[in-house]
Amino acid sequence: MKTLLIVLLFLTSDSALSDPCFNHTILDQAWRSTDCTETVCSGEWKSDHNLEQGWYRFKSFGGWKIPEGLVADRRCSGSYTGWLQGSHPTIEEGLVKRKVCFTWGSKPCSWNREIKIKNCSHYVVYELKPTVYTWDIYCTAPDTALSDPCVEHTVLDQAWRSTNCTGTICSFQLKSDHNLKYGWYRFKSSGGWKIPEGLVADRRCSGSYTGWLQGSHPTIEEGLVKRKVCFTWGSQPCSWNREIKIKNCSHYVVYELKPTVYIWDIYCTAPDTALSDPCVEHTVLDQAWRSTNCTGTICSFQSKSDHNLKYGWYRFKSSGGWKIPEEHVADNHCSGSHSGWLQGSHPTVEEGDVVRTVCFSSGGQPCSWNQEIKIKNCSRYFVYELKPTAYAGMVYCTAPASALSDPCVNHTVLDQAWRSMDCHGTECSAQLKCDTNLRYGWYRFKSSGGWKIPEKSVPVGYCSTYYTGWLQGSHPTEEQGEVSGTVCFNQGGTCIWNRDIKIKNCSSYFVYELKPTPQCNGVYCTEPDPEIIEPCVNHTVLNQTWRSIDCSDTECSGQLKCDNDLVSQWYRFER
Asked: Is the pTM value of this prediction over 0.85?
C-alpha cells in the first residue's frame, strides 16, 4: 500500500511538472497587439524568427490570445502577421494542433506554422516554434486582455508635463515621449492628471511639440474609447497626431499611450486638473542651511543651489525657518550666491492659492532676476510650488525668525563621550575628531562626557581633537531664553577662530544652534559634570563572557579581542 501511494504521488508530481499549464514562459509584450501598426508601439520592427521552441502564455494588455481572424500585414510590430486558422480548444478537448497563418500583402496565408494549444481554463498556452522568416510575428488580440487598465497601469508622477512649464523652466532639459513604452498610464502630479482638451502652444510641457486631446474625455458609462492627441508645431495646432485609448476610472483617467512620432513630442497635462491638495501632497525641505543667517558656506560645507530642484510643491520645515523672507536678502546668504526672497506678502487662508514672484539678489541689485511661484496658506504652514532656478548658485531662502518649532523639543542629541575635556589625544576615540561635517542645526549634548560646552579655555589636544571649542562667556538662565554666544577654538592659549552660536536654557539641559567648524581638527567640547551625569544610573553594560580570566587565548571567543575601539564612558561588567 505504501509503495502504491509513493508511486501515485510520484506520478501526480511528475504530471504536474510536465503540464504546460504549469510549465510555460510568459510573454508580457503589449507590442504584439493587432492595434500596433509597424513600429508605433515598439520603436523597432519585431520578429519571432529567433524564438526558442517551447510552451508560452501571452499575458499583457495587448491581449492573451492569438486572434482567430485574418490580420493585415505590418501589424503587431512586425511585417508578416501571425493569426490562428481555426478556433481555440475547449477545456474538454485538451491539447490540440492548429495552424498559424502569416499574412503578406494580399495573401492572408502566405505560409504557416503548426502549433499546439491547450486551454487552461483561465488562460491559453501555446507550443510555439521559431517563425520561418525574419519579421514574422505571433500576434495577440487586444480585446482578449484580462486585466482592467484602471487597475493595471503605470503612474507618471511628472509635474514638468504641466502646460505651465515653458521651455526647460521645470525640467533642466527638454523632455520627450519618443521612447515611452507602449502601455496604459495614469498622470498623477501637481502638474495635473488629465491631458488638456484644448490647444496648447508649442514649447510647453517641457517639450517642443505639445500633445493635447482632440475631443473630450469619456464618461464612466462610455467606457473605453478612442481619441486623437494632436501635437502643436508653431502655428499649426495639429501638425501630426497619435491615436490613443482612454478609460474613465471614476476618480481618475487612464490612457493607452504609444511612443510619439518625433523626438521632443510630449503628452501634456492640465494643471487645473490636479486632484491633490498641496497642503497634503508636498515634499518637506528640512534644510537649515537655507536660513538667511547662513553666509557663504558657514552652514553647509559647500555652496548650495536650487538649479536642479525638481518642479513641485514644497514645505520648508527646519530650524532655519519655514517661510521665504518677505524682504530683500543680500547676496551670498542662505548658503548660496544669489539669495531668493519674496516680492510681496504671503497669502491669508481665505486667499487660497496665489501667484507671487521670488527675486534673486546679485551684487548690489536686489532683484537681478526672478521666478514666478505659487503659494498656499495651509493655516499652520505654507507650501510653495517651486521651479528650478534659472542659474546655478540661486537658492530659495528661509527666514529663521519664522521657525515654528521649539529647539528644546526639536533638536538632535549628541551622545558622544569623546567630546569630554578630559579626553586627551586619541585615548577616548582611536582617532582625532572633527566637526567640519556637522550639520547646521540645534543640538543637545548628552553623554557621560558632559552635557554642556565648557565656559573656560580648554588646552590644545583635548576633546579628542586638536583645536578645542569652548564658550566665551556664560550660559543663559531660563528667564533669558534664547541668546547668542561665541565659541572659541583654542590654539596655544589663543582664540585662533570662533563660531557664533545660539544657546537656550531648557531648565534641566541646554540646546545649542551649531554650525560646522571652519576646518579640521576642531570640535565643540563638553564638560563632565558629576552632579548631572550619575554613572551608577548612566552607564553601558558589557555582558561578554570572553573577558573572564578563565579564558585562555581564543578558547572563549574564536579570535583575540581588543578594546582599542572602546568609546570613553562609564561601563558596568555583568556576567
From this structure: no
